[in-house]
Amino acid sequence: MTDQSSSLVVFLIAIPVFILTIALEWWFARHRHEERLYDVADTMTNLHLGSGQLLIGAVTKAPLLVLYHWVYTQSTSWGVPSWDTQQWWVWLLGFLVMDCAYYWFHRFSHEVNFLWAAHAVHHQSEYYNLSVALRQSWIQQLYSGVFYIPLALLGIPTAMFFMLNAMNTLSQYWIHTRLIDRIGPLEAVLNTPSHHRVHHGTDDPYVDKNYAGALIIWDKMFGTFTAETTTPRFGVIKPLRSWNPAWANLDVWGLMWRRMRHGGMTFAQSLSLPFRAPAWQAEGESPLAIKLRTESDYELFSARHEQLMIYASVLGVIDISLGSVLIAFAPSMSSLNVALSVGAIIGSAVIHNALLEGRPWSISAEWLRIGLLALGLAYAYAQGLALSWIGGGAALLALQMVFFMTQTRGLSASPDR
Fold it and tell me: What is the largest CA-CA distance in the chain?
């Protein structure tokens, strides 16, 4: 098993814990009549983005593995001692080094436009709950590894790096909740739900604060700490206003393109925009006509096709489940088959969230997807796949078709608002 696969296994083990704790938080919030804590469409989008991150990571993390291991090998050949993974204190020190590296990766992801374009995905939800922790960019992992190359230069072995990276990521899950207020003296050292709520806030005192991963000490050391004093408004200042997981990864790029085309920038300013801070405005630039999250009369995004909610949610859960199965089997599959399977699952997730949102093209796209599945079953039959598998797949597909027909009878895909 590769080092990359080992870290994926950690996440596979964590997935049932995520689902259970999200369900418990949802139930507890409803029990306390906190109806605004969760939204079905928002939660499904968060889960699709988390699943997509792991799926795309199964394809894209291999180059990081190669690069990191090459730098690690070079550093040890230069005389840098390799860390002894048999010592507990080495793991503790490694966790501190990883957490510090994460702070700087996270901070730069807020301070440079093209890095923010990827990281913004995690902040787009206008709610704040445990499912938001799983809302992750599909693009960010293409560059985030660069910030961890110094760990290879320090002599941290490749397998240890991937485990530390997984541990650091998982340690941040519990801080995405509004149900925990303060936790006493530990607030001085740990990154806590209170500290991280600040980070997800769009209010002036909170923007670009509290970048910490597991330990808040880095923010206090580098001057980016702010305590929570009022309940934040969550989201991004220029809202996404979509449940589409693919567009969530492209929205900020789209905003930059619109600014370049219509904002009155010079050519040089346009070229520099991806490297500027997200809040930067060119002299004489015309602001885009966008309703900002910080405006007092802003209303949370709520477009949805209520009659298709059940179908889209059920199929969305199936998409996410298939993603978990694919991640488990990916190490034994060819790269081509993994890439094709990832594309199929992500495409399916985009269609089902479009149904959720009520996009005009979504019903036709879903019928096309069902037709392609039927052709896939016919091809599998022609290739001699066991009849029991073909029969089971055909029966499930027939049930899905009946389900979809009953949900869409007499409908066009237009959202109820």
Answer: 72
| Cα–Cα dist 324/103, whole Å | 29
Tell me the C-alpha distance between 300 and 298, whole Å. Answer: 7
Domain residue ranges in the chain: 3-222, 309-408
φ, ψ at 215 (rounded to 5°)? -120, 130
H helix or E strand, kind and range, residue 333:
none
**CA-based nearest residue to 36, from 133, 106, 111, 128:** 128
pLDDT for position 2: 45
Of 97, 86, 100, which Cα lies nearest the Cα of 161? 97
What would the pLDDT profile of 117-152 be if each residue is shown by its tens digit?
999 999 999 999 999 999 999 999 888 888 999 999
Q: How far apart are CA 339 and CA 77, in angstroms?
A: 35
Please give the structure tokens belonging to residue 2. Answer: 């590769």
Q: Give the whole-angstrom CA distance, residue 254 versus residue 241.
A: 13
| DSSP state, residue 417 | -
Of 126, 359, 369, 367, the closest CA to residue 247 belongs to 359
pLDDT, tens digit, 9 for 90 and up, residues 306-344 = 889 999 999 999 999 998 888 878 778 888 888 888 999
Beta bridge partners of 190: 215
Cβ neighbours of 121 (radius 10 Å): 26
Total-model pTM: 0.91
pLDDT tens-digit series, residues 282-291 = 888 888 889 9
The SS3 of residue 137 is coil
